[in-house]
Amino acid sequence: CGWPxxxxxxxxxxxxxxxxxxxxxxxxCGVRGFFDKHEKHLTFSVESIQRGGKRMSQADLKKQVGxxxxxxxxxxxxxxxxxxxxxxxxxxxxxxxKLASGELRDVVAVPxxxxxxxxxxxxxxxxxxxxxxxxxxxxxxxxxxxxxxFNLVKGRGGALLREKMVExxxxxFVCIVDDSKFVEVLGGSKGAMPVEVTQFCWKATLEKIRAxxxxxxxxxxxxxxxxxxxxxxxxxxxxxxxxxxxxxxxxALGDPAAAAAELAGAVGVVEHGLFLxxxxxxxxxxxxxxRTLTK
Length: 295
Fold this sequence. Notes:
It holds the Pfam family Rib_5-P_isom_A. By secondary structure, this protein is of the alpha/beta class.
């Protein structure tokens, strides 16, 4: 963390330098600690993410994992599930590039949202549906949280129902994220855990969700309907509302399997954002490189 040779530093500059280096070290150790602690459960390969000696931006990291997923897991003749979100965007982009160049041929894809459908059509990616292609070779998508067992929270982008339908139909689900998405326990990021519900009597469904034992037993858990910036209800591609669950303070989802079962059994709930035991590969990018982790 030294200044360039010949540069004079004031005491304030030296102090700022020391503080900056300290926080970089903390962040690096935190990510490394996650992998060190769970190394016995995972195998991984690492690729460089530095370009010209400069650390890549978050957008660059997303592009790197998106491109890597297609380069390593999509082959000619495959049926591919295309995820939704800012990271999955780059996987779709890469697939379009490789089809256009002729590097890949005879690939068809199932999109998980209207936004992904529009992007794929703009790239001339042939699209099909689960009605005609009920089994996929691979699905590629991002996640909002990843725990050490590759259980996921997904759906903050609002596409959780179609994502789960497509990814549950794939022989292989490849999850692409940056290192900030790793948590020890689902709910640990303090972001939303989405639940898609019918518009009909949504308030009654909200109260049912709040009363579920796996939710009601968590101090600091709260549930609210998702809204747009103008205060109007957020509506999914399927015409449904989303109830967002938050786990604040030290709260987290202690038993994801129980919560998943209770949510699935609640009348009025269409789907939930707990993707348990579905991902077999996680490709992540961070300070130490691009990692491909497999169970």
